[in-house]
């Protein structure tokens, strides 16, 4: 069983399988599932209908790696890039870029900043006008993440992240991403903000509620988001999530022809951690 691929996307799938059109390379990207407790909820953004990729879908904060995210000048505390490289099965340079992109994109898209003045502290509030000016400068790339941290005397807190998943966009898409998923708790004192940009709506939802709304057709969930929510629905608290020994398996949906129709096949998960909801 697969997801139907009608119209133009179905024809593109046929062309890709026949070798008639080239496959677009996948860009490195990072996504962060921001969590809060009582009850366990996730932060979701609805992408604007005008976006070229995943228009109208509810997604977690994230985006492409900026080449400057691999800069060794980025102040860093917590597990080193070598640990993240091992977790995601990649090289240290790529891992450094992924972690930096995860923290940077989360700040850009939610106002949440996983950084602090030292290796054991974290920024308590990021809602002032000066923070907003820096956030916008990061978005338009006039300010690098390393410069941003240095200017404010902050260090990236990689210990606040946990590796969770690895998804690669199907080869049939015209925009493709090689995305590593992280999970992180909303830092004490900080709060998410509807910062606009690529999203036109934001919401906190329990994983189960988001899944129910997706199944009812009330919201659109892409396969990686749906799978991640399914996994998280098996947990009751953030501590339970962060304690999970979660193996990273690369998932890449693929197109196939079934009974004359083009469909997208999403590989089944090896297992769903936590208790069954």
From TrEMBL:
Q: What cofactor(s) does the depicted protein rely on?
A: Mn(2+); Mg(2+)
Metal-binding as a keyword of this entry, yes or no, is yes
Which E.C. number(s) belong to this protein? Answer: 3.6.-.-
Is-annotated flag, keyword Hydrolase?
Answer: yes
A GO molecular-function annotation: hydrolase activity
Query: Which keywords fit this entry according to its UniProt record?
Result: Hydrolase, Magnesium, Manganese, Metal-binding
- Where does the Nudix hydrolase domain start and stop, copy by copy? 25-227
Return the protein name: NUDIX hydrolase
- Which species is this UniProt entry from? Microtetraspora glauca
What is this organism's lineage? Bacteria, Bacillati, Actinomycetota, Actinomycetes, Streptosporangiales
């Amino acid at each position: 069983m697969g997801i139907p691929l009608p119209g133009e996307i179905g024809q593109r799938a046929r062309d890709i399988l026949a070798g008639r059109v080239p496959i677009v390379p996948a860009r490195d990207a990072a996504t962060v599932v921001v969590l809060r407790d009582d009850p366990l909820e996730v932060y979701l953004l609805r992408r604007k209908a005008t976006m070229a990729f995943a228009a109208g879908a509810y997604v977690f904060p994230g985006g492409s790696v900026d080449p400057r995210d691999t800069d060794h000048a980025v102040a860093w505390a917590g597990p080193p890039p070598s640990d993240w490289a091992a977790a995601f099965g990649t090289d240290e340079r790529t891992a450094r870029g992924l972690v930096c992109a995860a923290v940077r994109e989360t700040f850009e898209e939610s106002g949440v900043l996983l950084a602090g003045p030292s290796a054991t502290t974290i920024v308590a509030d990021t809602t002032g006008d000066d923070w907003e000016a820096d956030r916008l400068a990061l978005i338009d790339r006039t300010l690098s993440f390393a410069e941003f941290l240095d200017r404010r005397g902050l260090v990236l807190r990689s210990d606040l992240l946990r590796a969770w998943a690895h998804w690669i966009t199907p080869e049939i898409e015209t925009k493709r991403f090689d995305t590593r998923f992280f999970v992180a708790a909303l830092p004490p004192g900080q709060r998410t903000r509807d910062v606009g940009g690529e999203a036109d709506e934001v919401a906190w939802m329990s994983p189960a509620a988001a899944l129910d709304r997706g199944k009812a057709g009330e919201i659109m969930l892409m396969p990686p988001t749906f799978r991640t929510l399914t996994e998280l629905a098996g947990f009751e608290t953030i501590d339970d999530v962060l304690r999970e020994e979660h193996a990273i398996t690369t998932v890449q949906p693929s197109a196939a022809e079934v009974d004359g129709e083009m469909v997208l096949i999403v590989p089944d998960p090896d297992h769903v951690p936590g208790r069954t909801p």
